[in-house]
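Why run this: before we spend reagent on co-expression, it is cheaper to look at a predicted model of the complex and decide which construct boundaries make sense. The entries below are exactly what would go into the expression plan.
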Amino acid sequence: MNLIKAILLSSIGRKYIMAITGVALAAFVFVHLLGNLQLFLGADALNKYAVLLKSNFAILWGYRLGLGTIALVHIVVALSLWVENRAARPVKYVVNTHPYADFASKMMVLGGVAIFFFVIWHVLDLTAGAVRPELTEAKTMLGEKEVTDVYHVVLKGIGHPIAGFFYLVATCFLALHLWHGLESLLQSLGLRNSTYQLYIRLAARAAVIFLFAGMSLIPIVCMLGILK
Amino acid sequence: MSKEMNLTLKVWKQKDQNSPGRMKTYQAKKVSPDMSFLEMLDVVNEELIHQGQDPIAFDSDCREGICGTCSMVINGTPHGPMKGTTACELHMRHFKDGDVIAIEPWRAKPFPVLRDLITNRSALDRIIQAGGYISVSTGNPADANALPVAKKDADLAMDAAACIGCGACVAVCKNASAMLFVSAKVSHLGLLPQGKPERDRRVWKMVSQMDKEGFGNCTNTYACEAVCPKKVSALFIARMNRDYALSVAKGQPDAS
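The model came back. Tokens follow.
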């Protein structure tokens, strides 16, 4: 009971949950990006990777359910904190611009909501094929086997100007979310101190810049039709 | 002789805790640049009293930046535009003739406005009562140097102890979180040998009380350290987050 009270009901405990689920989600995002950058190694490389990911039903669905649960916990706890934060100042300032909180930190909730809706659309469109079924029906030969042409799915799916634009916007929201989140989570977990604070900031920002560059490169390349 | 200024003040007026408030405009005439911000308000109030009007109610005590009583948000910043100073230490020379200055009380649910700029900050006292102390068995005073304290720890504890409990951190925080205040108090005792025996229990109890009072949650914007008149570092918040985790991990938070 103590532990539940200390973690689930306290302000600091719920920040631990935000930080730990945040690390897991950010780790997924980085792995997802690295995997998809194989786009630049050609159709066979990406299709082989796609086959590997889907090769074991139990691992695939275990992974999906685990990730979904982590995302759900991150969202539910974030909302509970947000409701309390709003309630903590019932009368607003007449003159207030929050000059000391940076833009990224003020965009956490709005950006999180934007990312949530983007992810739903992204999964329905490119994974489930519910939005544009013709995309995911394309097949190709990988050696002797007929497989889904994921290379084609990415090129055509993200290469569509409207879809590509949404990918770029979502990338901006995600980068902004992590710009604050990656550094902030170490503070929440109590791992930031005077010795490491500079390195933590530099490492977090370098990671976000890499992520932003990689994630915006894919839609840009697809939209410009550079890859065939 | 420095030039006198005429200023327009927009001040939050509120009759009592249960009445709605609103901004009211006042003219501050012939303000000397050598006055402190509170002296300027004193002069305005003298004038208001002479005219038979209701003076602007505000909190003040030591007027030398050590008591933490003065509490006003000046143009959107707690304690005004100068870094590392309280409102009572803020000189009028930092303003220009003709300036419009907005003055509001601390705004947070745990700090109800009692009148105009005066808020009830006893929520912070209750957090201290929950664990911001050390238990001392009475007897003869111990020799001052009998307990060795590393210089580094003594300095860090002093940095945390600089907190005057004014509540500016709560006032500026977009979530009205009291984490900087609580972390300063937790750290300043926890760093010293006298505070070590109760370290785990203290952080647990003070954080529990903080949550009970209805303060918001920390989103690590570090706005608090930016406006803190004593420049208490937000790294103390990281330290408290660490202490809290250890306290919970040891599984004895509720034991007294």
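The first helix of chain A runs from residue 2 to 9. Chain A is about 75% helix and 5% strand. Bring this page to Monday's planning discussion.
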